[in-house]
Predict the structure.
Amino acid sequence: MFKFIAFSLCLACIYTQLYAQTILTGVVRQTNQQPIAYVNIGIKNKNIGTVANENGEFSLSLKAENTQDTLTFSCVGFEEMSMPIQQIMQEKTAVFYLKEKVLALQEVVVVQQKPKIKTIGTKSTNPFLWGSATSKDGKDIVEMGKLIEINKTSEIQKLNVYLKGININSATFRINFYAVKDEMPAERLVEKQILCKKDLSKGWLEIDLTEYNLVFEKDFVVAIEFLPEKDSKGYSFSYGAQFGGSTFTRTVSLGTWKKMKGASESMYLTVKQ
């Protein structure tokens, strides 16, 4: 029988060999010892990962062959950190520290004429067309994104997404913005934690983003990353869609994006130009 020790009682990382699997358990913190919530943790390009909880704690099951890989920790506002899994096991690393990013001040653009409010994206939904996103065990993320094409500098005001069907009453999620490379989401553009918890119901979900001063000059991908709740056993929802365009999805932290062509997620932004 294995004895499980709470984080508050012991900082030792637990490694359990069970059915040819290794279980890594630890906590992610800032250099000032404060825990970092919802850190994405995974093996890049292999769709193996998890996400830390609100206290920075995580647990990740790995197959024997993956112990030769490298584990990466990534979170908005912090420097990405990678560490060989063999080193983690040998040194029995329990606490993983991320350094806060030093952010350059964004240039302020002065506009002489009065800006116009526009909506960009897919503002309608087809009753016979939808997509679905499912977290089987409730321990990792579900993220869906949409390409936003702009023809001039745009200040983001609101994000709207159409939920067609849900099996949960509320959800915690993070809004991410990515550059576009080879028609796919690339590096993260915004190093601000945009976390929200919303009651969910069928129809349009509106998220106010005005307080974050988000300004873009080039096309980008906006994504909603649904985060697991405490004691969650999994969740699923479906979102509205419309013919044409494409939708980006992934269901593993730091996992590979999938591009679904022929249908565009019912998601749009209200912007000031």
Notes: The first strand starts at residue 15 and ends at 18. The domain at 117-272 is CATH 2.60.120 (Jelly Rolls). The longest helix spans residues 85-91. DSSP finds one helix and 21 strands in the chain.
